[in-house]
Structure formats: C-alpha cells, structure tokens
Amino acid sequence: MKKQPTSRTCFLCGRENDHGLKLEWFDNYEEKRVECTVTFPEYFNGYPGIVHGGIIAAVLDESAGRAIMLDGNIDNLFVTLNLNITYKTVTPTETPLKVFSWIIREGGKSAKVAARLMKSDGTVTAECEAIVVRPPKAIQETWEPERKHWHS
Predict the structure, then answer these.
(1) In whole angstroms, what is the distance from residue 69 CA to residue 31 CA?
(2) Where residue 152 falls among pLDDT bands split at 50, 70, 90?
C-alpha cells in the first residue's frame, strides 16, 4: 500500500503538531479504499475510556475526504460540504482501531465519500457519509505556502 502525504500542522496528520494525532493514511488500490490505524489517547475522551464524538467526527471527516486521493493525485484536495455521522457504539480510548474510507460517487467538482471506524473484532463504532467539494481558487491559493511541506 502507498502512504498518502501528510502536512506539518494539521490536527490529524501534522508531523509537527505536538497536540495532534499524527495519523497516516495508506491507499489500498486492491480494495479501492484508504486505510488508517488510530489509537486515541485518554485525553481525547468525552467520558473516561470513551472517545469524544467530536474527535471521532474529525477523524471520519478527514479519512472520508482522503478517499478522493486514491487516484494518486495528491493535489486533488476537497473540503467537506456536508458530513453525516452515525455513532453505532462507544469508541474506546487506548485501543488500536482501523478507519476505512472509499468513494461512493465522483463528479468534477464534488464527490460523495464514506468512512468507517472499527474495532479489531470488526465492530463498527461509527461511520459517515460526506459530500466534498473543490474549494474556490481563492481558498486554494491560501494553501500554496504549505505545498512544499506536503509529503509522505
């Protein structure tokens, strides 16, 4: 599997963000999905031993959006227009979990994507569907200074 690029400061993937999760995503071309492993530290809890729903939402949102880069175009960046999350059961802290994401439907300026968070026994703790869109040029231009730091 090929590792997707990460940035310096992103809360989820930022290599230099001391408060972030430093997640890494991998393209699984055979399964047509993106994969990530995450262990949420206890300080991301809502209740003791249970990951806060907002943190879960952030991971699902980022993971689903990364499905767009399965074509290998790392500049194919979209932003979320709509995110629908279903929490199926509690998500434990301090436990390795898998995130899988895939494309449901692609278009030129938008796509429908999905992601699923699972325990090692296959139990789905949360899942999402999202509509992602290509941001306006003015927004994309603000990302240019970071481009040189966007790597695997």
Answers:
(1) 14
(2) low
Question: Could you report the per-residue pLDDT of 131-148, keeping only the tens digit for each?
Answer: 999 998 888 888 888 878
By CB neighbour count within 10 A (0-12 exposed, 13-18 middle, 19+ buried), where does 48 fall? exposed
**Token representation of residue 40:** 């949420």
Residue 67: CATH number of its domain: 3.10.129.10
The two tokens of residue 7 are 């940035």
- Does an H or E element contain 142, and which? helix 137-142
Are 129 and 61 in contact by the 8 Å Cβ rule? The answer is no
Total domain count for the chain? 1
Is residue 112 situated within a structural domain? yes
User: Which of these, 34, 61, 33, 42, lies nearest to 126 by C-alpha position?
Assistant: 61
Tell which wins on pLDDT, 114 or 150.
Answer: 114
